[in-house]
Specification:
mainly beta, eight-stranded antiparallel β-sheet
């Protein structure tokens, strides 16, 4: 998930999620997440018209098949890919929900300010005020419909002036053809998380530590469950700080719990009493800093920071509750050119190397044996990259990495990284383009994926070139609270700690626990 550091060129189409729109990078792999099909619709904005920015009348629909709009399903959740009019284009992802009587309608996380969904018309518009001096308006107009897909144009406005324009494609969300609720996975318990939007989890000492980001005016924080009885977790504690509650990642070592904060870096808790975390302090303690994710290997803690300067922090945690900053790794040009270079979103350390998902730069491999002088060894890049999460393991004599983005069309890539200077793609795993993957965990020869609206997916990767799905659980139900408010909705975080169970965080349902298949 992405925080407020990003400034969207398209006018902040996404309210939640962790990404700015994607500017293409020079491709290394031909297998991209998104291939530009050209403009999605023939409608256009009427520049120079007397109409107010965002009004339905400001769109020209010459050539549109408006009669086809009558066939569009009028009740459901749609995920959306937006394509800007730039050359080359950028993309962004979003969602909206429509209902027969309009009572369940949602667009960019709120009820539309204007709505006209009729036999030959489709128009949604929402105006929001993020501050007293700023007004943002986003509007969609339909041009044609084909089955469960809507094609049209969009515009974004800031304080009444044009800030973004382009075309879009929306696809109605439906469970994958032929799938039941589950196969090979059995739900043993479900625990709702009261605060914010739950996004990540760490399990240790018989307790599950769930972190949440803020959601609108609702603060996030830390929720602690006693999971000694997997069939009946017990809520033990909620923690939320007034000015520091966008918490996106968690990890632990011994009696220390590390929480990634968008405001203060890494928040450290003493969990000597696991049901009663005691806050110690935040690191590195050098001023406001956004740490988005954390990872622990041995005596090292890594904190991936998108801002104010994109870099990865490297801490010594031989004394777990008192991290000591050893060094940092920053990609040259990330501050000056954030769209092209990106920022560290997540990372995994393995045998002296740090594998960093560096968003638009792709997947980086860094030698961190000398933390004061990290050295980049190689990378794997692709056009429209949003490199987001990864897992690494040994398969015989080979070192294999599993890498994925977070975007429209994002899917799993299998890379041979035995030679870190020349990673090679050897396999892939793809589902429908309108739901992104998010996190992943490698456990032996099983890869567990939190796949947003596609729920939990379990792959047999004993032959890395040919990942085979062996189990799934569709966590996504349209009847759950808040569904359709974001593209980043559904199964989002997971852990497989080795106790025989899989712990999954769903953005609406909370903590779900399954026996390992």
């Amino acid at each position: 998930m992405w925080s407020t550091w990003a400034v969207l060129v398209m006018g902040s189409l996404s309210l939640s999620g962790c990404r700015e729109e994607v500017k293409p990078t020079p491709p290394v792999s031909s297998e991209t997440d998104w291939v530009d099909p050209g403009r999605y619709a023939v409608c256009r904005l009427s520049y120079g018209s007397a109409h107010t920015c965002g009004d339905e009348a400001s769109f020209e629909r010459i050539g549109c098949d408006t009669a086809s709009l009558a066939s569009l399903p009028r009740d459901g959740i749609y995920t959306v890919v937006y394509r800007t009019e730039h050359e080359p284009p950028y993309i962004d992802s979003g969602s909206f929900r429509i209902s027969g009587d309009g009572s369940l309608d949602s667009f960019l996380g709120g009820a539309p300010t204007e709505r006209r969904v009729e036999a030959d018309r489709f128009f949604l518009s929402i105006t929001r005020r993020p501050s007293l001096n700023v007004s943002r308006r986003t509007s969609l107009v339909g041009c044609r419909a084909e089955s469960n897909r809507l094609y049209g144009c969009y515009v974004t406005c800031r304080n009444g002036s044009l800030s973004g324009v382009g075309t879009f494609m929306a696809v109605k969300w439906e469970r994958r053809a032929g799938e039941a609720e589950s196969s090979g996975l059995r739900l043993v318990s479900e625990s709702f998380v009261e605060q914010g939007k739950p996004v990540d989890i760490y399990v240790t000492q018989g307790h599950a530590y769930v972190v949440s980001t803020s959601k609108g005016d609702e603060p996030g924080g830390l929720t602690v469950f006693d999971v000694s009885d997997k069939s009946a977790p017990v809520l033990k504690k909620r923690i939320s700080l007034p000015t520091d509650n966008y918490w996106n990642g968690a990890w632990a070592k011994g009696n220390a719990l590390y929480v990634a904060s968008a405001d203060t870096g890494v928040v450290v808790f003493d969990i000597t009493n696991p049901a009663e975390p005691q806050q110690v302090r935040s690191f590195p303690g050098t001023g406001p800093i956004d740490v988005h994710t954390v990872f622990v290997e041995g005596d090292r803690l890594y904190g991936m920071s998108p801002s104010p300067q994109p870099k990865t922090l490297i801490f010594d945690i031989q004394e777990p509750t008192a991290p000591r900053l050893l060094g940092e790794y920053a990609v040259p040009g990330a501050v000056e050119s954030p769209y092209e270079v990106g920022y560290p979103h997540d990372a995994l350390a393995f045998e002296g190397r740090l594998y960093i998902n560096h968003w638009s730069s792709g997947y980086l491999i860094v030698d961190v044996r000398d933390p004061e002088h990290p050295k980049r060894l190689g990378s794997f890049a692709y056009a429209y990259a949003t490199s987001h999460a990864n897992a690494v393991g040994k398969f015989g004599e080979r070192l294999i990495a599993f890498e994925g983005g977070e975007n429209w069309g994002a899917h799993l890539r299998v890379l041979d990284v035995t030679d870190p200077t020349s990673p090679k793609r050897i396999g892939e795993y793809k589902l429908e383009a309108n739901a992104s993957i998010h996190n992943m965990v490698l456990k032996g020869e099983r890869l567990y994926i939190a796949h947003y609206q596609h729920g939990v997916r379990v792959l047999d990767v004993s032959e890395p070139e040919n990942p085979k799905e062996v189990a799934y659980y569709n966590t996504y139900r349209e009847t759950d609270p808040g569904r359709g408010e974001s593209f980043y909705d559904g199964a989002i975080g997971m852990r497989v700690p080795g106790d025989g169970y899989v712990y999954v965080i769903d953005t609406s349902r909370g903590l779900l626990i399954f026996p390992e298949p």
